[in-house]
């Protein structure tokens, strides 16, 4: 994490990572590096000079299809008009963690020195990001197409100007946004990246917890360790699969299991092959996000070292959209394997366990509903991934902007599946722990730590309301994730 201490993130335009973004989203303290501000000031001087020498999109011209129309009249009015005309976000307001992370990301991007804005702008954004929740801007979820979060960042700009009320209902002007700062402020997909970053961070943690939980299930069902043994690294030569095999072997070898079958059902036997792609895709998505938040995406971009400006399309978020879609598709395979293991824990006659892990009462339902809960979570995940956002496109602004990545849509979907995947893994945990208890198995090694962490789960087998069990299991997953490192 880019930080001077465990509780202060330092923004310098080069080293913002997922952990730091998660810290910012929680309202953690921020500092802006002096070196970054010097770069910003130097580039602002270059931008002012170049604007007097040549046309620059959004500074001396209109935007979109008006790119060839020179600005007339008072320049300050032009910039404010751009903010007002683009602040058309709609839908529910974004939650504070996403807003905070986005403000930190935008400040960090501006500190790369490519925008031409004055240092006051990244300072104001950073101050807002770590300030009181009631001072945050009200930013609406929808309105972007994946070619910069124009509506969201225009809302931020008007909030800085005091034209829009803040989350607490009050208005105050915290920055005189210059006309030439309006488009650079908007020329970023900071809100898309914020939602993607928080979703990626959460799924990486849950995917680790899923390894520990699956190992508990493996023990309860006496799974065959050959499926995660050395052969996996040869026959499935991919980093994620090898990592799954390594972790599972570390967790399971101390258990000295006698396999019940020569080969198990797919939920166990193909676990490296279906969970490995999720690990790989999330790692790839992390690299895309971290590269994007440490890059100048403004159009035009000003390169102080070369003394020039360039018009470009780096605001197009195809890499982000494809990274999100790939992770969502990979998630469906991992989730299906988890649902499969839950069904076998509850109903596999070869598991030597009572149906539905119920008590001896005739007709008792036990954990019957767990299959339904897991199935509904799987349906949510599949529904979000079924039509990749990156295959969509649209042509706007008289055909000048004739393609869009729809990365924002993909990021929204990422946020929607986090809770579903967490719930599915938690349901498996409840089932696995009950199965181990019913069989009287006490695992060794790190799985002993896992089972100890799960001690708060109720031992009562009688039919009752299971929602509190599942909710508690969700909270326990965070403690299980490090055991799979």
UniProtKB/TrEMBL annotation:
It holds the Pfam family Lyase_aromatic. The lineage of its organism: Bacteria, Bacillati, Actinomycetota, Actinomycetes, Micrococcales. This is Histidine ammonia-lyase. Keywords: Lyase. It comes from the Bacteria. One of its GO terms (molecular function) is ammonia-lyase activity. The keyword Cytoplasm does not apply. The keyword Plastid does not apply.
């Amino acid at each position: 994490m880019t930080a001077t201490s465990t509780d202060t993130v330092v923004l310098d335009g080069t080293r913002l990572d997922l952990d730091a973004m998660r810290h910012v989203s929680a309202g953690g303290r921020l500092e802006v590096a002096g070196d970054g501000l010097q770069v910003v000031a130097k580039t602002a001087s270059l931008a002012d000079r170049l604007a007097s020498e040549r046309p620059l999109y959004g500074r001396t011209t209109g935007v979109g299809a008006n790119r060839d129309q020179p600005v007339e009249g008072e320049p300050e009015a032009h910039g404010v008009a751009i903010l007002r005309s683009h602040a058309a976000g709609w839908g529910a307001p974004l939650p504070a963690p996403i807003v905070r992370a986005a403000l930190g990301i935008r400040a960090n991007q501006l500190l790369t020195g490519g925008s031409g804005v004055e240092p006051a702008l990244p300072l104001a954004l950073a101050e807002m990001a770590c300030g009181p929740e009631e001072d945050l801007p009200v930013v609406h979820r929808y309105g972007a197409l994946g070619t910069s979060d124009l509506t969201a960042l225009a809302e931020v700009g008007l909030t800085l100007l005091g034209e829009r009320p803040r989350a607490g209902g009050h208005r105050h002007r915290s920055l005189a946004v210059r006309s030439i700062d309006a488009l650079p402020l908007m020329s970023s997909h900071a809100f898309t990246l914020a939602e993607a970053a928080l979703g990626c961070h959460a799924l990486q943690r849950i995917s680790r917890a899923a390894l520990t939980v699956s190992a508990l299930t493996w023990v309860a069902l006496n799974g065959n360790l050959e499926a995660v043994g050395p052969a996996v690294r040869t026959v499935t030569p991919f980093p994620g699969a090898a990592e799954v095999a390594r972790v599972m072997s570390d967790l399971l070898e101390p258990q000295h299991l006698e396999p019940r079958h020569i080969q198990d059902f797919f939920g166990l036997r193909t676990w490296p092959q279906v969970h490995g792609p999720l690990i790989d895709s999330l790692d790839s998505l992390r690299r895309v996000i971290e590269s994007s938040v440490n890059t100048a995406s403004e159009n035009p971009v000003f390169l102080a070292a070369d003394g020039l400006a360039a018009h470009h399309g780096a605001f197009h978020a195809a890499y982000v959209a494809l990274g999100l879609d790939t992770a969502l598709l990979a998630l469906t395979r991992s989730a299906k394997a988890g649902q499969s293991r839950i069904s076998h824990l509850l109903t596999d006659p070869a598991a030597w366990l009572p149906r539905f892990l119920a008590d001896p009462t005739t007709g008792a339902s036990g954990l019957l509903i767990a299959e339904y809960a897991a199935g509904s979570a799987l349906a949510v995940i599949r529904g979000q991934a079924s039509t990749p956002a990156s295959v969509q496109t649209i042509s706007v602004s008289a055909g000048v902007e004739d393609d869009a990545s729809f990365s924002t849509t993909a990021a929204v979907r990422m946020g929607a599946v986090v809770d579903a995947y967490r719930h599915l893994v938690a349901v498996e945990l409840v089932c696995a722990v009950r199965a181990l208890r019913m069989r009287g198995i006490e695992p060794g090694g790190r799985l002993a730590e896992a089972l100890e962490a799960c001690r708060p789960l109720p031992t009562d087998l009688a039919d009752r309301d299971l929602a509190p069990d599942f909710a508690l299991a969700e909270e326990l997953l965070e403690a299980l994730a490090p055991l799979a490192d």
